[in-house]
Amino acid sequence: MNRDTRLSDVLHVLLHMAMVDGPLTSEVLARSMGTNPAVFRRTMAGLRETGIVSSDKGHGGGWRLTRPLNKITLLAVYEALGRPNLFAIGNRSRHPECLVERNVNAVLADTMAEASTLFYRRFGEITLDNIAGSHEFGH
Amino acid sequence: MNRDTRLSDVLHVLLHMAMVDGPLTSEVLARSMGTNPAVFRRTMAGLRETGIVSSDKGHGGGWRLTRPLNKITLLAVYEALGRPNLFAIGNRSRHPECLVERNVNAVLADTMAEASTLFYRRFGEITLDNIAGSHEFGH
DNA sequence: GTCGACGTATCAGTTCATGTTACATGATCG
DNA sequence: CGATCATGTAACATGAACTGATACGTCGAC
């Protein structure tokens, strides 16, 4: 099963955007993401809608950050992507009426919920300037 | 991305096996798992190799548990399946030499490592008899 | 020796994310 | 105002991976 790398890809691009003054085009940023402009725009749509970045058409257009890196948490980026599924494992309810199956599902769901909480907490603590510099943010 | 439900499926089957005296055939157990015998055998191969279950050919053959449920941890089952990938997210190293990308990867890898530890700890604490009864094992 | 069961290789089918193309919209510049 | 440049997005193509399916080999009980 292939992993969803959009979060990693988007962070990479955002950090590069922060290093440049003017806007950058999908053409350029897609290359930095290793894909093509249409995929890049599709991926960034949520970040535009939640206001992390803005995009302009026409001459001199392109993408830019709307606020400094220390005002953007990893959690905000994750949520802007639509909170993609974190886990590769899960339940399949073939027999929803079966008590055993319900117990199994509850155990796995509990553990995954705990792990989710951990992800959210950590993501909320990390701002993008923490990532831009050397890897130092509290442990 | 579709979730890997093998762990959930296998637990379900193991608990049902524990409720029966004699061995059960792939035919029967596959039906309980909602699949066909070949897929069932493929899925259970690791559990046979690690000794959680045994299988016998010929008349009166089939699958049986080799030890009671309270001697089987969820972790043992997970490992017998080959420690399937837990996470749906991940890094893609398109630019391994890029410092920014290395920082991004490190942040995500750290968080995933922490979550892995949590999964392993919880899986190690839970034995299958905890799941068989009502859902009570410590919180 | 026949039958019943597992073991497993191999191929087919499906699904889903990603890649691709195409075209519409809108802004800027001359 | 028209040309150009950029985004927005729909629609379709591609490809990889997992599951399902089939076939056949092995082995044990009767």
Structure commentary:
- The structure is a homodimer of 139-residue chains.
- In chain A, helix 2 crosses helix 3 and helix 4 crosses helix 5 (99-125).
- Chain A has a two-stranded antiparallel ribbon.
- Helices cover 53% and strands 6% of the residues of chain A.
- The longest helix of chain A has 27 residues, at 99-125.
- The two termini of chain A are 31 Å apart.
- Chain A has one domain: Orthogonal Bundle (Arc Repressor Mutant, subunit A), CATH 1.10.10.10.
- The first copy, chain A, has helices at 6-18, 26-33, 37-49, 74-80, 99-125, 128-132, and strands at residues 53-56, 62-65.
- Chain A is built from 6 helices and 2 strands.
- Residues 135-139 of chain A have low confidence and may be disordered.
- The first copy, chain A, is mainly alpha-helical.
- At the A-B interface, helix 1, helix 5 and helix 6 of A face helix 1, helix 5 and helix 6 of B.
- Chain A binds a DNA duplex (30 and 30 nucleotides) through helix 3.
Helix content of chain A: 40-55%
SSE arrangement of chain A, N to C: HHHEEHHH
Tell me the β content of chain A. Answer: 5-15%
Shape verdict of chain A = elongated
N-to-C CA distance of chain A: 31 Å
* Poorly predicted sequence stretches spanning 5 or more consecutive residues of chain A: 135-139
CATH names the topology of chain A as Arc Repressor Mutant, subunit A
Radius of gyration of chain A, rounded? 19 Å
Write the CATH architecture name of chain A.
Orthogonal Bundle
Protein name (chains A, B): Transcriptional regulator
GO molecular function (chains A, B): DNA-binding transcription factor activity
InterPro entries (chains A, B): Tscrpt_reg_Rrf2, WH-like_DNA-bd_sf, WH_DNA-bd_sf
